[in-house]
Amino acid sequence: MRTGSRLVVATTTVACLLSLAACASDSVMTGSRPHAGTRYTEATVTDPQPVAPSTLPGFVAPTTAPNGWSTKPLLGSSGSVRWQVFDAASQPLPSTKAQQQVVWGSGDTYTDVPGVLVWRGNNSRTAPAYGTADITQKKLQIVWTHDIGAVSADGSYFPGAGWTGQPLLVNWPKATKKAMSLKSSYVDDPNFVEVVYPVFDGHIYRLDLATGAATKPAIDSGWGFKGTGSIDPRGYPLLYTGQGLNEKGDQKGPWEYRIFDLIQNKQVSQISGTDEVSLRQDPVGWGAFDSSALVNKAADTLIEPGENGVIYKAKLNTSFDAKAKKVSVKPQITKMVYDTSQSRQRGIESSAVAWRNLMWATDNDGNLVCWDANTMNIVWAHYLVDNTDSTPVLDASSGTPFLYTGNSVGWRGSERKDQVTNLRKVNGLTGEVVWQYNLPSYYYFAVKGGLLSTPLLGKGEDSDLVIFNVAKTTAPSEGTMIALDRETGQVVWSRNLAHYSWSSPVMITGTDGHEYGVFGDSAGLLHLFDPATGKDYSTVSLGKNVEASVAAYNNMLVVASYDQKIFGIKVS
Amino acid sequence: MATVFSALVALVVSGAAVLTSGSMVQLPAPLARFARTLPAPLARFGHGLPALLGILVGFAVLFLAGGALNLISILLLTALIVAALDAGLAGLGAHRLWRVLGQGIVFAAAMAVEWKRGDLFLTNAVVAVLAGIVVMGVVAFATEASISSGASRLPAQVGALATIYLAVIAFGLPNPGLLTLTALVGAAILPCAVLASRSGDQELLLGPLLGSLGWALGMYAWLANASPSMVIAPVVIVGIDVCWTLVRRITTADGRAWLAEAGSWWRIADRWSQSGDDLLTQRVAAASSPLAARGWLLGGTAVCMALGLVEWQWEIRWILAAVVLLLVGVGWVLVQQAIIGLPRADLFSWLTALTVLAMVIAMGARLMDGRSLVTALPIAVAAMVWAAALAWIGLSRRSKGAAADL
Predict the structure, then answer these.
(1) Which of A66, A70, A82 lies closest to A338, judged by CA?
(2) Continuous segment of H or E residues that includes residue A408
(3) B119-152 in b/e burial notation, b at 16+ Cβ within 10 A?
(4) Alpha helix (H) residue ranges in A337-427
(5) Tens-place pLDDT, residues A128-142
(6) A22 contacts in B (CB within 8 Å)?
(7) Average pLDDT by consecutive 10-residue portion of chain A (572 residues)?
């Protein structure tokens, strides 16, 4: 072989080896950590007082037209936001008409029931894990599985559980367990925790967290669930959960937000997603409910944004008689519809967060909207550029509510422009962006790139961090998990993920005082990682894509994957 | 930072390799003497070797700096492997079929990895393999023809233009990997665009290398959401020139006679896809001047790329955008034919036909898009072709007049 040929062969070989090495593992890049050691905690507020929106800095009073639509300027863009409040009969509700007052306390007061009862555990969306875990080996071990199904709908196939798909873990009050006629061993066991899991196949599975055994027959709702349900925070045997699909093969059904009586194990009430006040027209509307409702226990009120762009407020009129084994609801609905100059699709897939009487949600058009839960009037709306499905996370550790949010590459992808995921911290009172970090992401309409997962607000030793799990960043199949300083937004670490993820990361507090992170990825791996560095301790395969998010109760994790199984996993 | 550093290293290594390749004819005497003292085997792989070395060293630097994303590694190494394999097979005198088979195997293996990784669907992977073979064939054909006709810098110049174009797209989409790969490739081939020899050495590597790198860049841009029309814009003119030539070899008596000289059908098939001296660009160079031919090719390519950017900004559907680019290509062929000697009457007939075609496309645009600007675009292209043809007629009359005066 001649010299030139040798040179070419040698250099090509070296380059091949280098690239193979590059592909071998997730690389982590580390930055500085300016607030390491700072402990950020939200003060417990059990007797919250409402905030008068007119007293907020920068508040702009709305103008109201004779047709009942109120308008105010849109932040972040020229144009405006307009909205109107309706009663259950879709008649405009006069602003003078009294509504149920709703005021939220701090996240730790959302419920007294041990467990994870709602998407990310509370009204701040900061508690996807309950309790502490005794972690010594730093390994994940599958201890049980439960088979679930799949559904063909909307021109696609949905196996197992998907986004957001977090299971609900409930350590019910004894009276509720008795009312639900659970086995006596469950009733008598104070550590019994029930897994309540609505999934794609349209069933709501009820399992024992310890063994995976069915505690009750699965409820067949008929239509698939994509989002996450909510258990009544008062420990009442009520499940609120939104329908994500209205097709099952060739069959087509109604859109409903459904309320289930867990004593009778059946649906007892609903809110229709096919709503005449909806402004969504693509082309005939879309009535799914991916959001996980917040239920205010003091006000007996549920608030649920819909993919039809309507925000529902339901005075539940709940009645629960544990001894008589009866529970009932008679929802009285108020609904609010809004529209901004940037609106195109008019739907909400994120779950709302709440602080006092203020609530926030992001929508498919990139609007972050703040409204007053008492009046259902918009306080402000900020256009944040692109489709935002990720649920904002509330940080009230400073006494002021701040939100961490990020968008996906949606509209900009369809326009082939500015394909970046914008990760932001926003002042919840004013809508002002405190910091922003941009991460280029790939666009694919059906499986979006960008932030689909909910940010993870650090706690304990890692409370200075906010961790974002961003999909499709360095390649369509890859992702980036990035930890930013919660005050400055600067990068503390950034980890390249070989397989992108829509699953929201979870932080578990160990009995050793350390924090441990968990997330699933699109290759079906569940990762146990160090939130301080982003590096894995260990992984376990759940077969196929883990698009759903984990909920944790002490040492036990639960999540379902595309492998059509619910997994009970022990952190050991 | 890793991008800038790796691109700079690629530029320096590639530039140094060009200077020391021993085939320079334009070097100042001291440098030329120095070059002649260096190992002759460096020239074995022709003008592509400097670019290959630049890319390899630049990639190594990128890797060490932590900037070598998996997608960059996969696409770049696929491009280098397929180019080396194709050059090797060409060096052995392998039949075109075996070269295509070799390319297909490497592309298929790489796309299987990409499909398995989840970067694209199976159908897209198959399209990518076919696109790779086509791009390799077209670019290698055009490059070999350019080298043999003494325009060896032309392909690298088109390549440099294309990387600038893709860099603009990478900034707009944006995508750090695409920008990095574009910068690295652009830096490595830039010295070949400026300094490469004009000699008619047999070329082994530059064509396959430019073809495979073009595929890698195009694939990356497409994965990063550039539309197919945005991706093909840099190679529309070259592609049309090659396709026109290949069709002409079959459809004209001259062409068939030339092919028949090869003997058996097996050899004819090989000869059909070998470069000769019959590319439109080569024929224009013979009919007017090499400089004019180069100007027309680079000018046409630049127009396509400018249109590609405009169509991107206007968010025109990619099929419509691609048809408008093809209209530019057809217009370019017409003007080249006029330069070669297409009778004036025929030229005007064809220009009229082109105008009708543009109006049909404009009607389609009206139906598909509805915007007046988009509707006007094919008409504007037709007007531009008319203007180019008339300008050439005017210039040729003046030069004939000047010649008559002499």
Answers:
(1) A82
(2) strand A408-409
(3) bbeeebbeebbebbbbbbbbbbbbbbbbbbbebb
(4) 411-414
(5) 999 999 999 999 999
(6) 63, 68, 70, 73
(7) 49 48 64 94 95 96 94 96 96 85 97 98 98 96 98 94 97 98 97 98 98 98 96 98 94 96 98 95 86 97 98 98 97 97 96 98 98 97 97 97 97 92 98 97 89 97 98 95 97 96 97 97 97 97 98 98 98 94
Tokens of A207: 């399992």
Question: Taking all residues of chain B, what is their mean pLDDT, rounded to a whole number?
Answer: 90
Token pair listed for B105: 């195997």
Model pTM? 0.91
Length of chain B: 406
Which residues, 6+ apart, have CB-to-CB distance to A308 below 8 Å?
A: A255, A273, A274, A275, A278, A280, A285, A286, A287, A288, A346, A347
Cα separation of B5 and B13, whole Å? 12
The correct CATH number of A47-571 out of 2.60.40.10, 2.130.10.10, 3.90.1150.10, 3.40.50.150 is 2.130.10.10
Record the tokens describing residue B98, joined without a space: 């075996």
Question: Which residues of chain A approach chain B closer than 8 Å at the C-beta?
Answer: 2-5, 7-9, 11-12, 14-16, 18-19, 21-23, 27, 29, 413, 415-420, 440, 442-443, 474-478, 496, 498-499, 522
Taking the C-alpha atoms of residue B174 and residue B149, their distance in angstroms, rounded to an integer, is 39
In whole angstroms, give the CA distance from residue A110 to residue A121. Answer: 8
Instruction: Report whether the peptide linkage leading into residue A30 is cis, meaning its omega lies within 30 degrees of zero.
Output: no
Cα atoms found within 13 Å of the Cα of residue A318, Cβ hemisphere only: 27
CA distances from B233 to A167, B155, B305, B377 (A): 50, 15, 5, 16
Give Cα separations from B204 to A398, B89, B140, B154, B184 (angstroms): 67, 9, 9, 16, 22
